[in-house]
Structure formats: structure tokens, C-alpha cells
Amino acid sequence: MEGLDLSASEPRTEEEKGPPLLGSGDPAGARASPSESSSGQRRRRRRLILLISLALLVLVVIVTLVAGILWRRSQRQQLLHWQGSGTTDSISEIILGRCFTYTRLKRPELRDKNCPEIWNAFKTAFLFKDQCNITEADYQPLEKLANQTLPCNKFLYWSKTYTLVHQYTMVEQDMFTLEDTLLGYMADGLDWCGDPGSSAMNHQSCPHWKKDCSNNPKSAFWKMASKWFAEAACGVVHVMLNGSTGKAAFQHTSTFGSVEIPNLHPDRVPLLEAWVMHDIGGNSSDSCSGASIHELRSLLNKRNIILMCEDDYKPAKLVQCVSHSEHSSCALT
């Protein structure tokens, strides 16, 4: 019909419709503006950069840890080689165990001692240091932590009589050798050392006091402990010497002669009793009338300390006879 627009009643194709109007209320068809699209891209880039940075940081940490582990392993493999035995296995457990045993069971009056702190002072004395330049001063913190007061008249020194003297103090428990104190008890019979380039103990070898160097961790410890044991002495002190070694019973180069005698205080130690013991049925190479005991007497006289000497001190001889009861000399004891 003329005058009518028939196209108004026909549906329009998508192409004819054209793009939807903004604000038409059709969210599915909404499009972001150029500024909004650019902002989203920047956020995505920032997230990507952050993720890459975190990944690099994690990688750096992993590489550092692996390098540290490999370095420590290489250091352990390159520990210096010495002529002496290496550190005793499980030394930390042994020393801590002995410390707790001594302070909780053997001498409970020392129960307030801090054993972990004592162990830390022990290892700090020589780890990360030149193992041939360890001094008594390195062990001073340990000495202070492990210090104890001992009764007068009960100090017993020894030279070349290790087994017998400790069998004797097991019976006479009110007598003290150095190894019957906390310091000596913890370290008795052990070996230890470290290395300048490692925090680990050297379990392969340690400096031999004669073949390598005398200022090693073990020797410095026993010098410190022996000096402390002499300086602490009071009253009548005693020493058990060996008259059956084939050598002099007293030697001024021994620990007793070179460390303990010089550090006795004459104002507190007026008298030293020496017991020269001989093996049951064994050799008698020296005695109280021998030249070495005269040398000992001369050294003590210069320090205003009187010496008394007895061959085969009877209580100690009885301890020897426990395992030699059939010997004729024991039958007469």
C-alpha cells in the first residue's frame, strides 16, 4: 500500500543492527574502553613480574643452600691430616652424659651446673681455630663453669700409675684425682680436635702432642685442668708414682713435675706424701731411696714444701693384691 513503510515490520540482520549502544543495559555485549583495557594489561604485567621475581628469589635461596652444603662437605673432606687419633665418636653425647651423671648422681651437690653450657664452652675453646695454637686461656670459660670446691687433705696426684690410682680412689672415694673431678671426669680417655676451616670435629685425625705440636686442643685442656687442680690444693697432698717402669719414678718433664708441682701453693700445702708403688712380682727400678725422689725432695724444699715418701703404700698394695691374691708378697701384706 502506498504510504506504508513495509520495512519496519521485517527483522533486521546483525549487520544492519550495527554495534549496541553504550548504556543499553546489555552486560553480555558490553565492551571495555581503551583506558580500561590498558589498565588490565598493566596489572597482568605486574603480576607476571612479581611471579618471576619470586621464582628467581626461590632459585637463589636453593642455589645458596646447595652451595653451602657442598662447601661444608668439601671442607670436611679437606680436613688437615695429623699423626694422632681423631675425635672420639659421639663425643658430644659422651661429655653431656658424663656431666649429667657426675652432677646428678656422683656429686649431687653440683646439680646446679649447666651441662649444655659446659659442653658449648668446651667445643668453643678449639673449633674454628689453629689446632696447633690452642692455649689454656681458650679453656678459661670452661674452667669457670665446671669449677668445684674439693676437701683439703684429699688431693691425689699420679704419674704412670693411671690404672692403680683410679682403682684406689674407687675404694677410697673421699680421695680425688683430677679424673675424679668434674673437669677430668668429662674428658677422661677422649680425643678431640677441630679444623680452622670447619665447624665440625675432625674425626679423621688430631695433632699428636709429640709428632705434630704440643699446643693442641687436648694437651691445652689437660694443662689447664692440671694447673687448676694444683692451685686448688690444700692441706697434705699425695702422689702415687711408679717404681716399676724401668725409668725414674719421678720425672720433672711429666705433668706432675712440670705443671702440678710449680702450681702448688706452699702457704696452703705444707706437706706432700709420695707413694712409690711396684708391680706385684714385677721389676723394681726405683724407690724412695732413688735419685729421682731426691730430685723431687730438692724441688719441694725450694718451695718450702716437705716431702715424705713410702714404698708400696699398704692400702694401695691391698688394692693390687685383689687380683694377685696368690702371690707371696700379698700373703705377707
- Described by its quaternary structure, the protein is single chain
Adjacency order of strands in the biggest sheet: 2-4-5-6
Q: Please tally the helical runs, counting DSSP H or I stretches of 4 or more residues.
A: 12
Q: Which segments are poorly predicted (pLDDT under 50) over 5 or more consecutive residues?
A: 1-30
Number of strands: 6
- Give me the secondary-structure category: alpha/beta
What order do the SSEs take from the amino end to the carboxyl end, as H and E?
Answer: HHEHHHEHHEHEHEHEHH
Rg over C-alpha atoms, rounded to the nearest angstrom: 40 Å
Rounded to the nearest angstrom, the distance between the terminal CA atoms is 156 Å
Describe the sheet with the most strands: 4 strands, parallel
Short description:
Helix content is 43%, strand content 8%.
Describe this structure in words.
The chain is an alpha/beta fold. Helices cover 43% and strands 8% of the residues. The protein contains twelve helices and six strands. The strands form two sheets. It has a four-stranded parallel β-sheet. Strands 1-3 form a two-stranded antiparallel sheet.
